[in-house]
Amino acid sequence: MLSIGSVKLDNALVMAPMAGYTTLAFRLMVKKLGAGCVTTEMVSSEGLARGHKKTAEYVRSHADEKPLSVQIFGSQPEVMAKAAEIVVAAGADLVDINMGCSVRKVVKTGAGAALLRDLRKAARVVSAVRRACACPLTVKIRAGWSPEDPVAVEIARVIEDCGADAVTVHPRFATQGFSVPADWTWIGRIKERVGIPVIGNGDVSDPSLALRMKKETGCDGVMIGRGAISNPWIFQQTAAMEQGLGESRPGPWERRAFLLEHFTLLCESMEERRAALAVRGLVLACTRGLPHSSRLRGRIAQIRDGETLISTMDHYFSTLENLPS
Prior knowledge:
By secondary structure, this protein is α/β, with parallel strands linked by helices. Helices cover about 45% and strands about 15% of the residues. Helix 8 (about 185-195) links the parallel strand 9 (about 165-175) and strand 10. It is globular and about 60 Å long.
């Protein structure tokens, strides 16, 4: 169990915010599969403060996904504070400040990982959100902007001093993107220097790595991103492994059921064609590495609606069922 401020998680495994993936539909699915906490896609504080309808859709929530963390980004303290108030009113159980995104359109506004280059401004942002936020506050950081300016420990202490309840550490520099392996030693260094919970993130692609990160760094929790896109069962698998149980792997029809249920949930918030197009990336991710998955990739582009999705899934997964054991 992991406590972040007043919020108690069932376990210490957190679904990372991922643009294009951590929709309400996906969050509901991974919560059911054992995630202790789920996080929205990164949400613009400017869009929220200005009342943009499309931005507000990102924070639409459901009771079954609780506790929910909403991640906001921006560079203006007063706007970030307003956004925090909005997401709490919309049902957020935790508010997370993004200080790790290195996408150009984000950092050019001074938001995301750009705040790692201006610790005074970062402190003003955290302090403003803390004053406005009626629920636990967390901040996600990187090791720094570049290897020449490793500020991870310093910014983590600033975040704690400003009243945040936990910090998530992605131990790469913004200039590195995902081009180098995550250096977990940064997570351990920060854990040694702050008193608030530290959540590790980066290169956790299977259950054994989640447990290894906790053991090597002493972190209080593990945030899983890309590893949960290709294997949404990673949360329950990690929990089982931690209890000394065997790692259960989903069979072909279990994967099919997951994908189709996810599609059904997407259809509750968008029209069928759009939902079918949105689910194609997840189909690819969930079948990568399976026998004959290259053949499936050739058929993905044909998915345009529920009918073609179901026929494509049935055709592919029936071939797996007929393979010799």
